[in-house]
Design goal:
Multidrug-efflux Transporter Regulator, Chain: A, Domain 2; globular; 4 helices; three-stranded antiparallel sheet
């Protein structure tokens, strides 16, 4: 496993930690968050909501719509980050 892939995994773990995934909320890394709002993900990754919307529009990041809310599934976020690390390498 390369250093870039390890960095992406560390970023994912930090994003879960920042989002409040802890024992008090009933979530752990073994029981991760299933989905993210654009605002939650933007804050966790340190990017803007418009940037994430642009990535969805470009087709790089797939989103689900629940009513008016845009939700990014955790598995999709992990795939997106892995793809981004591969493009950077």
């Amino acid at each position: 496993m390369g250093p870039l892939r390890l960095a992406v995994q560390a970023l994912i773990i930090e994003a879960h930690w920042r989002s409040g995934d802890d024992m008090e909320n009933g979530r752990t890394l073994a029981n991760p968050k299933l989905g993210w709002t654009l605002g939650e993900l933007a804050q966790s990754l340190g990017v803007s909501v418009p940037f994430l919307r642009l990535e969805v529009k470009r087709g790089r990041l797939r989103a689900a719509h629940l009513g008016r809310r845009v939700v990014l599934l955790d598995a999709e976020v992990r795939r997106y980050l892995a793809d981004a690390s591969d493009r950077a390498a």
